[in-house]
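Design request, tokens follow.
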């Protein structure tokens, strides 16, 4: 099984955190200021979110943005 692309790992992490928080994509959209369709693409791993979007999502989920990025980067080949 190959390694997942970083966007897929990041998206899965965001989706898991959102679901654990018990909020919908619509609610996360309102809290982050991002379009719901963009959030959906991020969660599916098909969008390449900007750092600004990642920070907005992290703030809306009340998590450290660095945690999202670090855990995603660790899944990449050569991740430390």
């Amino acid at each position: 099984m190959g390694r997942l692309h970083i966007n897929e790992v990041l998206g899965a992490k965001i989706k898991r955190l959102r679901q654990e928080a018990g909020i919908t994509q619509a609610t996360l959209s309102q809290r982050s200021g991002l379009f719901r369709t963009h959030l959906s693409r991020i969660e599916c791993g098909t969008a390449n979110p900007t750092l600004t979007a990642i920070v907005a999502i992290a703030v809306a989920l009340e998590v450290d943005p660095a945690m999202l990025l670090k855990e995603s980067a660790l899944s990449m080949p050569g991740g430390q």
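Comment from the thread starter after seeing the answer: thanks! The mean pLDDT is 89.
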